[in-house]
Amino acid sequence: LHEIKFDGYRLEARIEAGRVRLLTRSGLDWTKKFGKDVPAALGDLPVGTAIIDGELVVETGSGASDFSALQADLSDGRDDRFVFYVFDLLHLDGYDLTRVPLEARKSLLAKLVPEDDGILRYSGHFDENGALVLRHACRLSLEGVVSKLRDAPYRAGRSKNWIKSKCSARQEFVVGGFVPSTVSRQAIGSLVLGLYKNGKLEPVGRVGTGFS
């Protein structure tokens, strides 16, 4: 099954008797970073105890998540645009669900989350061909797609059960040199980049820098 990939902060929400903590993948408590509304929405869910996997994002006008906007809001102390998308349920009212198939965990989670497109939103999925879903996601300027085995148990950390496909193509290059600026004698015009192919460094072009 294929879910839309978000560009935000992956967080684990731990709910216990209305008290909510938002933990990073490394176990840091970031609850206070994101204001009161997201924890309040999670605390209002009809659960006694729960562990929910999700991603906190800021969405642009087009509906796509924007990591730069999220970082800017955090820097400015702004918390009115945060949305928390939930996509997995690991524990519910005393029951460990990590060995339950993903599709069943998602089905339970969907029943807990309001359908009003508020602060808390359920991350649905598509059953169509993955390449087709990815093409449509990229046309909508979304981050990409996460494809998951529908019958897989939950595994912490990186797993072959998940495959991320991004819309933005990225590559690492070697900086081989620079070309002086034609405008200023005190600036760099562009960097000359290369890429190793069969053990040989080959030029791939130049990029502007804005460097002094």
Give the end-to-end Cα distance, rounded to a whole number of Å.
Answer: 48 Å
Summarize model confidence as the mean pLDDT.
91
Q: How would you describe the shape?
A: globular
Unreliable runs: none
Structural class: alpha+beta
Helices and strands, in order, run as: EEEHEHEEHEHEEEEE
How much helix is in the residues? 10-25%
Could you explain the architecture of this structure?
By secondary structure, the chain is of the alpha+beta class. Helix content is 18%, strand content 37%. The protein is built from four helices and twelve strands, in the order βββαβαββαβαβββββ. It has helices spanning 37-43, 67-76, 102-112, 130-139; strands spanning 2-5, 9-16, 19-23, 49-58, 82-92, 95-96, 120-122, 144-148, 162-166, 174-180, 188-197, 200-208. The strands form three sheets. Strands 2, 3, 4, 5, 6 and 7 form a six-stranded mixed beta sheet that branches. A hairpin with a 2-residue loop joins strand 2 (9-16) and strand 3. The chain starts with a strand and ends with a strand. The relative contact order is 0.15.
